Sequence to fold (172 residues):
Amino acid sequence: MGGGVLLIVLSIVIPIWVGVEINRRQAMTRADLEMIVSASERFFVEYGYWPSPHMGTPNDMRYGRETGNDLVMNALRAVDGPGNEGHRVNPNRIEYVRLPGHGRGRSGLNDAGEFLDPWGSPYQIVLDTDMNNTCTMAHTIYPNQVGVGVVAWSFGPDRRSDTPQDILSWDN
Ligand SMILES: [Ca+2]
Fold:
């Protein structure tokens, strides 16, 4: 195959591959967001509170920004660690999620136990810690989410929040 032909073939194949890879990561992300929400809701059914050491905190807690999402994930994973020391938040030690380690192009846990999306950014999670049946959204363009106790989102391929590439657990 001549070099020119090879370049033409690559110029066609590489964009297709990039598109397939983005779709694959977005699908993985949507599944992760659904898992975070459904696991948190099952946790709530069991305990009557959200998987957080901050229940009672006004204005609701956001995880993945100033406070790591490992505090939520440790409770959901039944891990004795930050946020769930001595299994105090999940005393029945129910394992709501089981997650692999983070890898290139693959979501999972980093060494600190934070749940990262396929692009390496921590998932953002807001829990209704003041129990007023609304997730108050702080430091974001997104409006408060009424009638839900947990929302989550990913920064998406650009690794920045509040951009059109964000992937949301709710219908915006
Ligand atoms: Ca609230």
In short: Residues 3-168 form one domain. The CA atoms of residues 133 and 147 lie 5 Å apart. The beta strands are 61-63, 108-109, 115-116, 124-127, 134-135, 145-146, 150-154, 167-168. The chain has one domain: 3-168.
